[in-house]
Every structure is written in C-alpha cells, then in structure tokens.
Amino acid sequence: MTRRTFIGGALAAASAAAGSRRWRLGLNTYCLRFQKWNDRQLIDYCVKQKLDAMFLQDSLDPAVMDPKHWADVRAWVKDAGLHIETGGSALLPKSEAVYAAKIAELRKNIERAHAMGSPIVRTLLASDRYHMPDEGPVERHVETAMRILRELKSQVMDAGMKIGIENHKDLQAWQTRELIVAAGKEFVGSYLDTGNPVFVAEHPLTTVEELGPYAVCFHLRDSVVYEVPDGIAVKWVPLARDGRFQGAGGACGGDSAGRVHLLQAHYGAPAGDHPGVFGRVLDQVVSARAVQGSVAVYSVGQAW
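Now predict its structure.
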C-alpha cells in the first residue's frame, strides 16, 4: 500500500463521519522524521495531502525554540487552513536535583504550543518503563507527575489549553486515567495512541475504553506481534497492513502465520481492509465522546 492509497482510504473513511462528528484528520509528523524536514516543509506536505490538521512532534527545525519561529508557524498554518497541535518533553525529571529545570522546560513547552496556536501541549511520563527516573515503584513516579501537573495548572488554564498525556509504554491505561482524573480533567486529558499499549501488555481497545472519554487527540496505527527466537517482538504498522514487513532480523512473516495484527484481528477484518479497519477503530474511539481535537495518523502507508 502506498502513501497515496493510504491517505485516500483514510480520507474516504473519514468523510462519512466528518459532518456530524466535527473532528479533523491529520498526521503526526513523527512518521516523517527520517525526511529531516523543517517545519515549513512539514506544513507544505500536509497541505499537499489535503489534510485538515497536523501534530508537530519532535521538530527538527533549527529555530524550534525561537519565539519568532513560533509566530511564523502560527501564521503558516493559519494561511494553509490547518489545525495544529504540538507538545514537548516528558514530565518526569531524572532526579530531584533537576526538578526545577524540568519545570522550566515544561513551562517553555506550554509557551511554545500556545504561541503556535495549539489547544493542547503533549507530554508523557517517560519514554518507557526503562526510562523512569529509577527502578522504584511506579506509584512514586505517578505522585511526582501529579506534583508537576499541579505546578503547571494555572499556566495551562490561563492559556485556555489542556495537557495531553500520551500513553507511552510507561503506564497502563487505568493508571493514566487515574492520573488524569486526580490531577483534574479541566486541564489534563489523554493523548490517546493505539500503537503503544502492546508494550505494556495491553490490548489497544482496552486503552480506547479506558482513555477514550478523556481524549483530546488520538493517533491511529496497528501493532503486529510475532515470534522471534528468544521470545516475541512488536512492530508498528499502518492499520490493517498486509504483506511482508522488515523486522530486526530481516523479512518476517511472508504469510499470516505467526503474525497478529491486533486491531485487524479484533474486527475480524480481511487482510488489506485498510479503510474498513480505520473506520471501525475511529467509530470505537469517537463513540466515547464528542471529540474536540484531531485524528493524527502515525504511519503513512509504510511499516517502520
């Protein structure tokens, strides 16, 4: 499946629901990171694909933290008719010694997102369990995250924004939900990703059920689980992708044996039913609430 057919199928699935649900279809620029494009090139690409929105993640633009550039991005997306969302780094500091520096960094991320016109600022606790500040209990790290969120609350609310916490291989969905509710739904929500749950041994639709009601943005992709000599491996793929894909040791799974596309399998969809699975997952997510944010599609027609 090519980028063009993927975007075309996604837009076709989206168009039937767009009138009543009022959500925007876009992409997360993380899936284009290997292009090493600056922010203007990413915006131009989204316009060329006739998308409604973009999530600007992990920008490689040389002016990424320049306030003048933030104003430029805001003007560019306004002229292009694009809705923009963005964010920044993880919440948790490596140690108490750098706590103040982490707060300053997060405040700058909020300032940047607001200046660009984003209604949310994306964050996460840590890249994964292995990148938590230490090997102590998760509960202690959640308490630290709560403390940080409360410090940021007034700045976020004064800007009319929300913090979107991504489920990012760190917590299970119920833990993220409890953090959101305890911190305050008025300024914290879920940056819901269907590709990450498998890394914490959770089915993506369990994540949807837990975090859907709190979603401020959601990202759609599938995960393939397959056997390797020393256990199992996971690969992110576009929804309902069929055919061969490259694993760490080369091509894996020339047929369906040993491979499980988690979302495709759930819906009993035939191989290659990309737009159909896209629409079913979308229905599952938006049924939880009237989505206010955007749909950002991670994988644009290729496994990586």
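The chain has nine helices and 13 strands.
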